From TrEMBL:
Xref: Pfam families: NifU
Originating organism: Rhodospirillum rubrum (strain ATCC 11170 / ATH 1.1.1 / DSM 467 / LMG 4362 / NCIMB 8255 / S1)
BP GO terms, sorted: iron-sulfur cluster assembly
Residue ranges occupied by any NIF system FeS cluster assembly NifU C-terminal domain in the UniProt entry: 10-75
Lineage top rank: taxon: Bacteria
InterPro entries: FSCA_dom_sf, NIF_FeS_clus_asmbl_NifU_C
GO molecular function: iron ion binding; iron-sulfur cluster binding
Name this polypeptide is given: Nitrogen-fixing NifU-like
């Protein structure tokens, strides 16, 4: 599977499988970016501050692995300060964080 097909499949699964389930509980998910096998997302709505959000992310990761047929890592974008920035700014932010 090409990277473009992989990204399309991830977006499709998030939209058609994951999002409806989260919305039933007044939550939601936003796809921030994809880098290789790392999928950066933001949980919103009722998911913000929920004690079970880490379990939710694990379940999302499992569903995505089943759908794309390869290992993936779902990472909350807030855990990586530069996740929502374009690659050039992300590199600068990563360098600044290490300084």
């Amino acid at each position: 599977m090409s990277q473009q097909a992989f990204e399309a499949k991830v977006a499709e699964v998030l939209e058609t499988v994951i999002r409806p389930r989260l919305r039933r509980d007044n939550g939601d998910i936003e796809l921030v970016r994809i880098e290789d096998h790392k999928i950066f997302v933001t949980l919103t709505g009722a998911c913000v501050g929920c004690q079970l959000s880490s379990i939710t992310l694990s379940g999302i990761q499992q569903k995505l692995m089943e759908a794309v047929g390869r290992p993936v890592r779902v990472i909350p974008a807030h855990a990586v300060p530069w996740a929502g920035q374009p690659p050039v700014k992300a590199a600068a932010a990563a360098t600044a964080a290490l300084a």
